[in-house]
Structure formats: structure tokens, C-alpha cells
Write a structure and sequence with these properties.
Gln-dep_NAD_synthase; single chain; four-stranded parallel β-sheet; alpha/beta
Length: about 700
């Protein structure tokens, strides 16, 4: 009997309810795995239907179509002589479970339901699924008739079991089970299971990848073993981007890994490993485990008898992307998926010459860079998609600037309050990335600004009118730009409001922040500035230097002597840096006004007095509560920041508040009074001590 096994895991760009496309990508991954000599193939979580089906999981059609796809997989010659591990929802005793279905040679070996559901962040699995609550327990599952007729099986094992081949033993984890303090791999390792598998739908967040990798390394550092991680990739129909990172580890070392960001719809990662390395590692660490798992015995070997000359994979170093690189790559891949699957012909962006719209433009340019590189590397799917988007079957993108001219249209929407500086900055950036750049639009109205004697209502209305007209014109251009050129299709309108502006509501409802999609809506202003500095170096976009040097401004109030006097930070009453801190306290630390004040008087004590901190906290919560209603209609944005105020599902809050916050603010005032009294006492004490010293 041999001892070396070749295993395969993968990242697939699945799409919710795209059963046909999902089946094709699953079969492709199995084909590649077999070509590389693998005897076991692991796929992402819920890969048959797509992870993001949301309330479609309630529909019996979704369950039916999943079993139809499973039948096609069982029938396919590609799935013969390889253990296939696929994900789909299964209803058992009228309860819906998120399951792995493991099969070999037209026989289902085991259905393993998820035991620890993800119900935090963007995940709402308890909404659609129930956890399997019986550890190490297996019972019978009656198969649908269409599967019975094919496999000849009436029932199959269902539950927390493990798969025992002739040469080793495999056990499953599903996504969040790895992140849980009671991860199943711990007990499985103690019971002699040598190969752990994890099928995930883990979405991208900035600075998250290292946590994922460290968990997988740790899983096999403690007690040894082989760990396979599969993940979804791409945009499967909503605002999340699943960032791949398929990997294989052994005894605490990563030996094979896939890309975090790529335009490949199917990416397979394989490794050949020696089971004796696991056994040797465990020899001095493990003791007898007293609660054995039910082993589903399989007359199949993952190894070959003659494998002495087969080389094994060695540890590899994982170099993580910087946050600036993640912003450059993740949202760009997300935009490409959205564009190619929307049936539209490109993007339109109102380019203001400021940080936010410039960041969005740079992300589109980064998308074009990745597309050209993918075509150069021989990615036929990307080439086919590009040709369809530009409506030219002979087109082959080679230069990102040239491709940008096909896919990306920008326009400078000037008013009488726009400065020549911002116009020039926008024009320079558009020229450097190669996008189409349209003429400016002038907006004039009768009401007067405050600077010219108008009321506060007039002043705000005039700003909002300008902002909303920009949105109207953006959609007009998106619909008619290609028509005017005699080309088919329309353009997707991109938004460019950052996460901090959404948090405070510092934008006009249905203004230029209203668009089809927004690639930077989940990124903070501070990260965007770092990203633009990265773009200056990486893409040689020198026009960004002037943009970074200019103060952020909405440019909706009159100029003074031709210069901008309105700034975002002055309007908001706090800096973007301060807002980023407050945003994290509100969401991540779960702080209300009072607890936020209590934390900030310590962390900001070198900069602000307690009364100044109180003023800032009160101002923030007033802004937040008054403007929260805007989040119910905010443009779908790429999710990148863990303090995002996205109302859709990440940050579920009321949008009608008592904006006086009477009780909370009174608690803050009491603390400020105590602080002032203490300061007075300290000052008096100091003066008395000084007087005593003088008298002596």
C-alpha cells in the first residue's frame, strides 16, 4: 500500500442560481484535478446553487435544481474514480441544512450537514438553515427518487461522520466551523482523522487574509494533519467579493496556495503529500480519544502502491497583499464580474478631480490592467467576455489605457462653483488612464446661497439640486453615450461615496452617490488616500499628486476669489481620521454615545479636553441619527471595511431616531461635569501647594 496522496481543492467563481454555469465550473475543476493525478476534489460551500441565494433558499425549486445538478455530476464520466465533495442545501426531516455531499463512482458516500452556522457580519445563515446539533451522530437520509434511480441507493448516511478509505481517513469542516473555538478538526485529529477539509464562502475584507491563513496553519500545528481549504471567488450577485485563497497545509505549513484575487473562473490547487509525515508528527503528541466518529468505509485508495518516486510538495511562503493592493485588486475584480454579468457595455463615472471619484477611476483602470494581463496569460473566458462587452468578436485588449477607452466614460460636471483646478486634475487623470472624458455641465438656479444672502434652506437646497442634477445627467449619459456613437448597449453608472461619508450621511440622497454600484462605498477616506499614493507609484498616475494635496470638498458653495472655501471636514465638524475612529467604536466595539465618550476621553486626551470630546461625540450621533434614513437607499457598494454602515444586511439599525439622545447625552454631560470638578480641585490643590512652597 502506498502512502503518498494527491489532493485537490479549488476556488470557483459561482453565481447564485446560475445552475448551468455552476455545473460547468464544477465539472471543469474536477477535470483539472484528475489531470493532475488527484484522487479527491474539494469545492466551495454551497457551490451547486451559489452561496448568495439568500431567500431563494426558502424555495423548493432551489432544492430541486440542486439535486438535478447533483444527478448530472453523478452521471458525468469526469466524476469517475475520484472522490468528489460538493456543497448544496439539503432538507432532512423538513429541516433545511447547509451540506457537503461526498460521492464516488455514482454512489453517495456521506451527506455532512454544517454544525456551526455563520450568523455574524454579512452572514445570516440562521435565517435559512438549521445547524446539525448531534456531534458524531449519523442517521439515514432518504434520497430523492431521481437519485435513487441513478445510484441504486434508497438511503445514505447523514450526519457528523467521517470518510474512511483503505489508506487514510477524511473529515469535513464547513467555513465558519474553522473560526469557532470548538472547531471539529480538534476532535477529529484526536480520533485519528488525517485529512481535514474545509469548504468555504469566505468574503473579502481588508487585512483579513492573514487571519484565515493563520487559522489553517494552526489547525494542523497542534496535532498534525493535512488541511484543504476551498473557497468561492468573485461576485455571485451582491456586494460581497469572495477572495479565493484555496490552499493546502500539512503539519502547520502551507504547501500549495491559489490566488486571492484573479479573473480565473476556475482555479484548482493540488498537492502530493506523504501520510507518514502526519503519522510521524503525531506520534509523540496524541493520546487515545474516547469518543470515536462514525467511519463510513469506502473501498477506495487515495494513494497508489508504487509511489516511491513521487515528489511531495514543500512549504511555501505566503506573501500577503498590502491594504492598498487589496483595494486595487478586490473591487476591480468585483467590478469586472458585475460588468460582464450585467450585460452592459461599460461604466460611467462623474469625475470630480477629488479623492473619491479618482479612487473609483483608478479601480476601473486597475480592472483594465488585470483584464489585459489575464488575456496575455491565455485566459480565454476573459477574452470572450471582453469581446462581448465591447461588441467586437475580433477585439483583443493589450493596453490597459486603450481598453479603458472602450469600457470607461468619465465626465466633469462643472457648476459655476467648480474651480479650474479640479477640472484640470480630472482632465489630467482621465488622459492618463485613457478613458473617454466628456464636456462639463453648468448648473444655474434662482435661489441664493448663504454667502449671497440666501437662507440656510436655500443654501442647502442649492447644494442638493446641483448634486442631484449630476446624478440625472450621469444616467442620461450612461443611456445615450453609446447610442450617440451608433453602438449598442448602455453604461453602468458608478458611485464614489466612501464609507465615512455614508456613516455620517454627508451626502445628498439621490445625488451622485446614487448609482448602479459603488466600488469604494466600503472603504474609508484614509485608506483611499493611501490607495491613491499606491497608484502614483504602481501606475505612474502623477495627476493624483495634485488630487492628494487638495482638501476634500463637495464644491457646492460659491468660490471666494476663485478659490474653494467649502471643505468636507469643516462641513462634517470632524476630520476623516476622527470619523474613522468613531466609526470603528460604533460598529466594532459596539459603543453608544456614552461608552464612546468614555473611551475617547482617554485615547484623545492629548488632543482634546473632555468637553471637546463630548461635543464631537454628540455632533456625530446627531449627524448619524438624522441621516440614517439615507442608508436604506444607498447604492450597493463593494464591502471592504468592517465598520461599514450598510443598511442592506451588514449594519441593521432603525432609521427613525429621537435625535436628541436626551438620556445618553445627559450621561455624557454628567461625566464632563465630574471631570471639570476634578480639574478644578486639582488646580486649587496645585495652587495651594505652590503657595505653601513660597511661604516656606
Amino acid at each position: 500500500m502506498g502512502r503518498k496522496v494527491t489532493l485537490a481543492t479549488c476556488s470557483l467563481n459561482q453565481w447564485a442560481l446560475d445552475f448551468e454555469g455552476n455545473l460547468t465550473r464544477i465539472l471543469k475543476s474536477i477535470e483539472i484535478a484528475k489531470q493532475r493525478g488527484a484522487k479527491y476534489r474539494l469545492g466551495p460551500e454551497l457551490e451547486i446553487c451559489g452561496y448568495g441565494c439568500a431567500d431563494h433558499f426558502y424555495e423548493s425549486d432551489t432544492l430541486l435544481h440542486c439535486f438535478q445538478v447533483l444527478k448530472s455530476l453523478l452521471e458525468s464520466p469526469l466524476t469517475q474514480d475520484i472522490i468528489c465533495d460538493v456543497g448544496m442545501p439539503v432538507m432532512h426531516h423538513n429541516v433545511r441544512y447547509n451540506c457537503r455531499v461526498i460521492f464516488l463512482n455514482k454512489k453517495i458516500l456521506l451527506i455532512r450537514p454544517k454544525m456551526l452556522l455563520a450568523n455574524y457580519g454579512n452572514n445570516r445563515e440562521f435565517r435559512w438553515f438549521s445547524p446539525w446539533s448531534r456531534p458524531r451522530y449519523v442517521e439515514e437520509y432518504f434520497l430523492p427518487r431521481m437519485i435513487q434511480d441513478l445510484t441504486g441507493q434508497t438511503t445514505v448516511p447523514f450526519g457528523d461522520g467521517v470518510l474512511s478509505t483503505k489508506d487514510t481517513c477524511l473529515g469535513s469542516e464547513i467555513c465558519a466551523e474553522l473560526w469557532n473555538p470548538r472547531s471539529p478538526h480538534v476532535d477529529m485529529g484526536l480520533d485519528g482523522i488525517e485529512i481535514f477539509t474545509n469548504s468555504s464562502a469566505s468574503y473579502h475584507e481588508l487585512r483579513k487574509a492573514d487571519h484565515r491563513v493563520n487559522l489553517i496553519k494552526s489547525a494542523t500545528t497542534k496535532s498534525g494533519g493535512i488541511y484543504l481549504f476551498a473557497n468561492q471567488k468573485g461576485c455571485d450577485g451582491d456586494r460581497l467579493y469572495y477572495d479565493g485563497c484555496a490552499m493546502i497545509a500539512i503539519n502547520g505549513d502551507i504547501v500549495a496556495r491559489g490566488a486571492q484575487f484573479s479573473l480565473e473562473d476556475v482555479e484548482v490547487v493540488t498537492a502530493t503529500l506523504d501520510l507518514e509525515d502526519v503519522r510521524s508528527y503525531r506520534g509523540e503528541r496524541l493520546t487515545k480519544h474516547h469518543k470515536p466518529y462514525t467511519r463510513i468505509k469506502t473501498d477506495f485508495s487515495l494513494s497508489d502502491c508504487d509511489d516511491r518516486c513521487l515528489p511531495t510538495h514543500q512549504p511555501v511562503e505566503w506573501i500577503f497583499h498590502t491594504p492598498e493592493e487589496e483595494i486595487s485588486l478586490g473591487p476591480a475584480c468585483w467590478l469586472w464580474d458585475y460588468l460582464r454579468r450585467s450585460g452592459q457595455a461599460g461604466f460611467l463615472l462623474p469625475l470630480s478631480g477629488g479623492v473619491d471619484s479618482s479612487s473609483t477611476a483608478c479601480i476601473v483602470y486597475s480592472m483594465c490592467v488585470q483584464i489585459c494581463q489575464a488575456v496575455k496569460d491565455g485566459n480565454s473566458q476573459v477574452l470572450e467576455d471582453v469581446q462581448r462587452v465591447v461588441n467586437d468578436s475580433s477585439y483583443r485588449p493589450e493596453d490597459p489605457r486603450e481598453l479603458c477607452g472602450h469600457l470607461f466614460t468619465t465626465c466633469y460636471m462643472a457648476s459655476e462653483n467648480s474651480s479650474e483646478d479640479t477640472c484640470n486634475r480630472a482632465k489630467d487623470l482621465a488622459a492618463q488612464i485613457g478613458c473617454i472624458y466628456l464636456m462639463e455641465i453648468t448648473v444655474k438656479r434662482w435661489p441664493q446661497f448663504r454667502a449671497k444672502g440666501g437662507s440656510a434652506r436655500e443654501n442647502l437646497a442649492l447644494q442638493n439640486v446641483q448634486a442631484r442634477i449630476r446624478m440625472i445627467l450621469a444616467y442620461l449619459f450612461a443611456q445615450l453615450c453609446l447610442w450617440a456613437q451608433g453602438k449598442p448597449g448602455g453604461l453602468l453608472v458608478l458611485g464614489s461615496a466612501n464609507v465615512d461619508e455614508s456613516l455620517t450621511g454627508y451626502f445628498t440622497k439621490y445625488d451622485c452617490s446614487s448609482a448602479d454600484i459603488n466600488p469604494i462605498g466600503g472603504v474609508s477616506k484614509m485608506d483611499l488616500k493611501c490607495f491613491l499614493q499606491y497608484c502614483v507609484k504602481s501606475f505612474q498616475l502623477t495627476a493624483l499628486i495634485g488630487i492628494l494635496d487638495a482638501p476634500p470638498t463637495a464644491e457646492l458653495e460659491p468660490l471666494t476669489d476663485g478659490k474653494v472655501v467649502q471643505t468636507d471636514e469643516a462641513d462634517m465638524g470632524m476630520t476623516y481620521s476622527e470619523l474613522s475612529v468613531i466609526g470603528r467604536l460604533r460598529k466594532i466595539s459596539k459603543c453608544g454615545p456614552y461608552s464612546m465618550f468614555c473611551k475617547l476621553i482617554h485615547s484623545w486626551k492629548e488632543t482634546f479636553s473632555p468637553s471637546q470630546v463630548a461635543t464631537k461625540v454628540k455632533h456625530f450621533f446627531r449627524m448619524y441619527s438624522i441621516n440614517r434614513h439615507k442608508m436604506t437607499t444607498v447604492t450597493p457598494s463593494y464591502h471592504a471595511e468592517n465598520y461599514s454602515p450598510d443598511d442592506n444586511r451588514f449594519d441593521l439599525r432603525p432609521f427613525l431616531y429621537n435625535t436628541q439622545w436626551a438620556w445618553q447625552f445627559r450621561c455624557i454631560d454628567n461625566e464632563v461635569s465630574i471631570s471639570l470638578e476634578l480639574c478644578i480641585i486639582i488646580n486649587i490643590s496645585t495652587e495651594i501647594n505652590m503657595a505653601l512652597k513660597v511661604s516656606k
